[in-house]
Every structure is written in structure tokens, then in C-alpha cells.
Design goal:
heterodimer, A: 259 residues, alpha/beta, Rossmann fold, 9-stranded mixed beta sheet, 6 helices, 13 strands, globular, B: 335 residues, 7-stranded parallel beta sheet, 8 helices, 16 strands
Chain lengths: 259, 335
């Protein structure tokens, strides 16, 4: 049996942010979506399941109750079970506290996992830190910037990493954690049978007491970093529209001549 | 004098110190002054005898002390070996600040260090300062670049990864009598859990030309296909520009990966940036908005690119661009 855990996150739809008059993000009406990178984390797990027998996939998230919808969708796409870590004590966590909490949950509830898959980035915070920090908390090897899983068995996973300088193929001994980039393919759709299964499947819900994490290690209290100031970036350019190509060319020419 | 600002000197696969180290070294001079001249320390991890090659660079870039960890297992970056060894030596150094380039390697390496040191880590910063209380104030974009956040840490070392090509390297050498120490590295008994099977160098193994370009002409999905990008290449030749692209264009296969500008590509700062058929997704904007002058051509007058440019024209890029090329050719002939 190969047990795969996929860590997923619900994020606000950052492509559609509106601002209040006070230059804060208007949270009302801001839709939540599954982090696009995590869609491919689920997808890479499903690809292993489709190729091999005896693979089970559990998706795991930390967040409010409304994240259940997202977890149900992962089951509708072919995952087997899902887990929600939810507790007021988890609120306001930075990547340090988040990874400690998730690692604690894995240690207490899913200690027999073989492989953990995370998205490389979450589009809201964009830190790329929670995955590697979970690996370090669990003292398992990590491989980041994975474009594709080339091969997987009970002992090893072979992956293709996409780095600045080129493509690296790496073999990692299980148990391990990998962080995946977005794929160049369409994710698999929700099926009718999948939806039926999702409706029947109970989501496992755990609070801080269930997963052996102290209140001072979780959430805002357990976070070494804090936001001292948040602000809207200063607009750096002001557009002057020109009517025709020749005006455009002349503006460009002046600029080029200054150089 | 104790503590210090520790900078990670990443060695690239091509065997040089990653340029972001020199950018950090330059910023560290400024931060050090605000921290009662705490020393600037570099950490390098490489194979036996290899630090020698980089000695002069460290001396010219104002580094007070270099901790060189040399071991045969450091031929390539392997997180297990690098993190374990770095944590051991950082515990001894006990710096107040640790800065690491936000490269693929840096962003893989840093979270392991912060977890082991039980401290915070701020990712992919674009501004660093020391506040009135002597804390590192690290500013970074969140929400896809739509919101900026300044982050402080309650614990030390205060750690941050910093986006490459944001700070400028020192313009003039700050020559120091750098001290080099070679702590013992013991990796015996550490299991080989990650094995590199193969590495295929991409075109990006050389320094990306976009980083130093004075003029960039970039295309998005509005360029439609590879032919559209050939038009940009032709225009680039006339004005001596480099060609850039959006992520969408790269992923659609009409532009090369090393052309990608933006959050997941390179950050560029040319004098002139000409955006052709680029709608202006915020992920692209964060990679080019620090250009001096931005010109934009787009068919859609509501395209967000017009919020971030100095001169814009609403029109078909396939009409404007050829006219522009003809016009510029004429100027060239007249000079």
C-alpha cells in the first residue's frame, strides 16, 4: 500500500482583488479557490494512483470550516479521503507555525504515509516555505520545484525538477516530501461517480487537542514573524495615451535619444 | 563585537557565486551601519579547495569574515547535506540576521534552516531595512504583488530570502581584510536520501541577458504565435533590445522559457520597456515595473498594462509594430 498525503490550501482569488477607499483589500465577496499549484499536487498524486495498484490519497488542509468544500472536490476528482485541521488556536499562523501544526497532525494521524505532495507556491502568500518546513519538521527529505513525477514505487520517487539553470532529475528515498510546480496539462475533471463518493465521504476534522500541538506553538502565538505594516504598492507609472502610431514612435524616439 | 549579518554565497551549477550574493553584500553594508557596524559574514559551501577561487570577490565586496564549509559531498546542492551542515555552523556564529538569495536553491535551503533554528523566515523580499528598534524590517509582495507587507521577527536570527536583481551590487569596491575560517564538516552517518541522477543544462546557465538589458521589447499572448515573436526579434535588432515574454506566452510555447519576465521569471530594470500585446497580469507587472520608461501597445483599452506604463497606444500590435520598425530603421539610417 502506498499512502500519499497531499497538502492543499484555500486561497482568495487573487486575480480579482478589489480595493476599499482606505486602500485595504475588500474581503467581502472575495471568492476562495483552491491554490492553483495544489491542483497539480493532487493531479500528480492521481497520476501515481492511475498507474499503480494499492495507492490511497488523502488531502489535508488547515483552515476554516468552509474549506470542506474544497476537500470534497478533491475526493470528487479521485482522492480517497480528506482531513481538515481547524481550530481558533490555528488562526494567524505564519509558515513556521503552520508547518509545525501540519507536521504534528501528520505525525499523530498519518504516521504511516509514504509520500507528501505540496504545491510549490500558494498564490496568496507566495512564500514557498510551508512544504520544505513540514519536511524539516518531520525530518524527511524534500525535493522542490518538481515539474513532473517520472516514476514512483514504495521505496523511491524519481522526479524532474525545473530550476533556473536547467532540468535536474532526482531520486528520493521514501518517506519524502515533494513540492510541485504547475503542470502544462489540463487537470482531470470531477466525475459523477466522484461527486457521489464525495457526498458520502466524511471529512476527518481535527483540532489542536487531537493532534498534539500546544496552543503556544500554533497560530499567532506560535509564529515568530508578524506583519508590522501592509500597504498598497505605489503606482510607479502614469499613462499618457497617444492616438496614432507616429506619435507613439516619436515618444519612443525621444526616449531612445536620451539614452 | 558579536552577532553579525550572515549572507549565503550560493555557488551555481556553472561554478560561480550567484550574483544575488553581491547584491546582498551591497545591501548588508547599509544594514550593518544601522546595526552598530555588526560584521558582515559570508557562508560558502563547496568542494575541497574551491573557496580559494572566490577569495578576491569576498575581499572586494566588504565581507569581514567567511565561513567556508568544504566537503566532497557539496559538489551539488543536496538539501540534506547543506541544511545539516549550515545549521551546525550558524548555531556557532549566532548572527542577528541571515540573508539568502530567493533562488530555487535559496528557497529550498532557507526554510530548513529556519525550522532547525526555531526562528522566522520572510520570503522573497524586495526591500530590507533596520527599524528604530534595531529589528530587520523585510518588505515583500503578497497577494500576487497586489499588497506589500513589512514583516518583523520576534526571534533571532531574523531570516529573509531576497529576490535577485532587486538590489544593486556595490558600485565601488569596499576592500576588507577578510578573515577565512574553515570549520570541520562531518557528514559521516548522514544517509544519502536524495540522489541527483542527471542534470541537463538549460540555455539559462549563462547570465540571462534580460537582466542587464538597457532596452527590452516584450510580448504576451497578443503576439499570437511564434511568428509574432519573430517580429519582436526583428524589432529588437533594430533598436538593440533584448526580447522578453510573459509567462502565458512561454507556457503557450510561443516564447522561450529564458525570456520569461515576472514573478516566476526574471525581474528586469531596463531604461525602456516596450510591452507588445501584454495584458498586464500583476505577476508580470512585478517583474518589470521598475523599468524607467514603459511603452505599451494593446488592442484592449481596459488592459491593466495601461495602469503601469508611461506611454500607451490602443491598437493592433501587428499594425503598430511594423510601423515602429520602419520608423526606427529610418532614424538609424539618418544617424
Amino acid at each position: 500500500m502506498m499512502k500519499i498525503l497531499v497538502c492543499v490550501k484555500q486561497v482568495p482569488d487573487t486575480t480579482n482583488i478589489k480595493w476599499t477607499e482606505n486602500n485595504t483589500i475588500q474581503r467581502e465577496g472575495l471568492e476562495s479557490v483552491m491554490n492553483p499549484f495544489d491542483i497539480f499536487a493532487v493531479e500528480e498524486a492521481l497520476k501515481i494512483k492511475n498507474k499503480r495498484h494499492n495507492v490511497s490519497i488523502t488531502t489535508l488542509t488547515m483552515g476554516p470550516n468552509q474549506a470542506i468544500d474544497m476537500l470534497k472536490k478533491t475526493i470528487a476528482r479521485g482522492c480517497d479521503s480528506a482531513c481538515l485541521l481547524t481550530d481558533r488556536k490555528f488562526a494567524g499562523a505564519d509558515t513556521y507555525a503552520t508547518s509545525k501544526t501540519i507536521a504534528s497532525a501528520i505525525r499523530t494521524k498519518y504516521a504511516d504515509f509514504n509520500l507528501i505532495i505540496c504545491g510549490q507556491f500558494a498564490v496568496d502568500g507566495d512564500t514557498a516555505q510551508t512544504g520544505p518546513a513540514i519536511a524539516n519538521n518531520l525530518k524527511i527529505p524534500q525535493v522542490t520545484y518538481v515539474k513532473e513525477i517520472v516514476d514512483a514505487n514504495e521505496f523511491h520517487v524519481t522526479v524532474r525538477r525545473e530550476l533556473e539553470e536547467g532540468i535536474e532529475t532526482v531520486q528520493v528515498k521514501l518517506p519524502a516530501l515533494i513540492c510541485v510546480l504547475q503542470g502544462d496539462y489540463e487537470p482531470s475533471p470531477v466525475t459523477i461517480n466522484g461527486v457521489k463518493k464525495a457526498l458520502k465521504t466524511e471529512i476527518d476534522i481535527y483540532s489542536a487537542d487531537n493532534i498534539d500541538i500546544a496552543a503556544e506553538d500554533a497560530g499567532l502565538k506560535g509564529s515568530p514573524t508578524y506583519v508590522s505594516k501592509a500597504f498598497r504598492p505605489v503606482k510607479k507609472h502614469e499613462c499618457v495615451f497617444v492616438e496614432n502610431s507616429s506619435d507613439f514612435c516619436n515618444e519612443l524616439k525621444e526616449c531612445l535619444q536620451d539614452e | 563585537m558579536s552577532r553579525g549579518i550572515l549572507l549565503y554565497a550560493q555557488i551555481t551549477k556553472s561554478g560561480y557565486v550567484h550574483p544575488v550574493f553581491f547584491e546582498l553584500a551591497s545591501k548588508a553594508q547599509e544594514l550593518s551601519k544601522k546595526l552598530n557596524n555588526e560584521p558582515i559574514i559570508a557562508l560558502i559551501m563547496t568542494t575541497k579547495g574551491n573557496t580559494e577561487k572566490f577569495k578576491e570577490g569576498f575581499q572586494k565586496f566588504g565581507i569581514d569574515k567567511v565561513y567556508a564549509l568544504e566537503n566532497e559531498r557539496f559538489e551539488n546542492y543536496i538539501s540534506d547535506y547543506y541544511i545539516t551542515s549550515a545549521v551546525n555552523v550558524i548555531k556557532q556564529i549566532d548572527p542577528s540576521v541571515i540573508l539568502i538569495g530567493a533562488t530555487c536553491e535559496g528557497r529550498d535551503f532557507a526554510p530548513g534552516i529556519s525550522t532547525a533554528l526555531h526562528t522566522g523566515l520572510t520570503a522573497d523580499c524586495i526591500e530590507l531595512d533596520i527599524n528604530e528598534k534595531g529589528q530587520l524590517a523585510a518588505t515583500r509582495p503578497t497577494f500576487g504583488g497586489q499588497l506589500m507587507a513589512t514583516i518583523l521577527s520576534k526571534k533571532t536570527p531574523q531570516m529573509a530570502t531576497v529576490r535577485p536583481n532587486v538590489f544593486k551590487p556595490l558600485e565601488e569596491d569596499v576592500v576588507k581584510d577578510t578573515e577565512f575560517v574553515y570549520p570541520e564538516v562531518n557528514l559521516d552517518g548522514i544517509e544519502e536520501r536524495v540522489k541527483i541522477l542527471n542534470f541537463i543544462k538549460g540555455i539559462e546557465n549563462e547570465r540571462n541577458k534580460l537582466l542587464d538589458a538597457k532596452i527590452i521589447i516584450a510580448g504576451g499572448m497578443g503576439m499570437k504565435n511564434a511568428k509574432g515573436f519573430e517580429m519582436l526579434e526583428d524589432a529588437a535588432k533594430v533598436i538593440g533590445a533584448e526580447v522578453g515574454a510573459t509567462r502565458a506566452a512561454v507556457e503557450a510555447g510561443i516564447a522561450k522559457r529564458n525570456m520569461q519576465i515576472g514573478q516566476t521569471g526574471v525581474t528586469v530594470t531596463p531604461k525602456i520597456y516596450i510591452a507588445c500585446g501584454i495584458s498586464g497580469a500583476i505577476q508580470h507587472i512585478v517583474g518589470m515595473e521598475n523599468s524607467d520608461k514603459i511603452f505599451a501597445v494593446n488592442i484592449d483599452k481596459n488592459a491593466p498594462i495601461f495602469e503601469h506604463c508611461d506611454c500607451g497606444i490602443v491598437g493592433d500590435v501587428f499594425e503598430v509594430l511594423p510601423e515602429m520598425v520602419e520608423f526606427l530603421k529610418k532614424i538609424n539610417e539618418n544617424i
